[in-house]
Amino acid sequence: MSTASRDTAEDSARPGERAGRPRTGRLSLPPAARPYVPPLVLYGVTKLVGLTIFACLLEYAGDYRKKEPRFGGGAHWWDVLQTWDGWWYLQVAEKGYEPRPLQPLAPGGLFTVQQNSVAFFPLYPGLTRGTSEVTGLGLYGSAILVSVLASFVAAAGIYAVVSTLAGTRAGTIAAGLWAVAPGAGVEWAVYSESLFVAIAAWACWCVMTKRWLAAGLLAFFAGLNRPTSAALIGAVGLAALVTLLRPDSRREQGVLGPVYAMVAAPLGLLTYIAWVGLSMGDLTAYFTLQREGWAHYFDGGAYTLDVLRNVAVGHNDYLFAFSVPDLLGVQLVIALPFLIALMLRRKPPLVLVAYTLASVLTVLGTQQMFGNTGRYLLPAFPLLLAPAAALGRLKWPTLAVFFTTAAVASGWYAHYVIFELGIP
């Protein structure tokens, strides 16, 4: 019997077992929530171990004390978690946006226009500000709270998707793998990745379970969180279109749900991009700002190829060169074809295939900091499907050794490397 079959048989047996037990009056979780306890516990414990190792490494090196608070420094180790992009998000949460015409810089430098906070999408800083006003926490504490809570929602969504396809054991393992994935250090930092993955995972699950209204709404919110939401929006739209084109599925699911998902999904992203353009007096202002203010733009993979060639021969005279993060990024890129092939071999639903391939294409085809490849690929959680299913064949004592080792190691490669040896 396969792992998925055993999980299904076990799950179907439990309600009957519970029905025969007398009620004790003790507080207990609703039956629908109980399957999420193991993956969330595994995720939380694994993240705590990685964060603890990260803190120990920061204190041992002490380098963060010599850096500017905005650029990886601070008085305490936890201050590092609010630097770089975190600084921008906190600025938006505190002051809002100040859209103004693009300001040219002196020629000859890497950046040709002045950076502006409108490059950072509003959903995450908006939730941070709202959480601060409701709870009384400071903006930093509120931002961390939003990230941590969103990371658990994301882990639950990953579990829901993977367990649907490969069984509860694989779903639990997938949640744990996401905690130790390269770049996972930003999941509990002032970054928007956890919130985005939470939205993306549940949007994919909604498409898989034909909840089109929820899928369209989630994709709409994703568009207010990150520009890379285009991959999710396209995947939801494609799945809806295919549903409409197939007579059997159209009769079964109707027309209104898929049409709503197709229409609603892109509105968040388009609305924000249009607002930036209108506010700054140039409809292409957002893309110009990304290209000229951050040197991030789609180049068809030319930059990725340049990094791969330079790292292969030991050169570091390319843009955004950081030796250790880049070497890890190269290893991840080499593993991608294998991970994609394994995912496709399990024949996942169209929405997962389209979302994953579009996400990978976006990452590899964009000029950005190559050392952050692991962070940029965090949303591509369907790549965990095959590894989680394979690891599901192991016994829990063996898995305990694996996750303990991975959690400890992740404090270095998923946290310290990107925050201290590179720029997250």
UniProtKB/TrEMBL annotation:
Its main location: endoplasmic reticulum. One of its GO terms (biological process) is GPI anchor biosynthetic process. The chain crosses the membrane at residues 40-61, 137-162, 168-188, 195-222, 228-245, 257-278, 318-343, 350-370, 399-419. It is found in: Endoplasmic reticulum membrane. Pathway: Glycolipid biosynthesis; glycosylphosphatidylinositol-anchor biosynthesis. The keyword Manganese does not apply. It is a multi-pass membrane protein. InterPro entries: PIG-V/Gpi18. Residues 7-20 have a biased composition (Basic and acidic residues). One of its GO terms (molecular function) is GPI mannosyltransferase activity. It comes from Streptomyces longwoodensis. Keywords: Endoplasmic reticulum, Glycosyltransferase, GPI-anchor biosynthesis, Membrane, Transferase, Transmembrane, Transmembrane helix. Residues 1-30 are annotated as: Disordered. GO terms for cellular component: membrane. This is Uncharacterized protein.
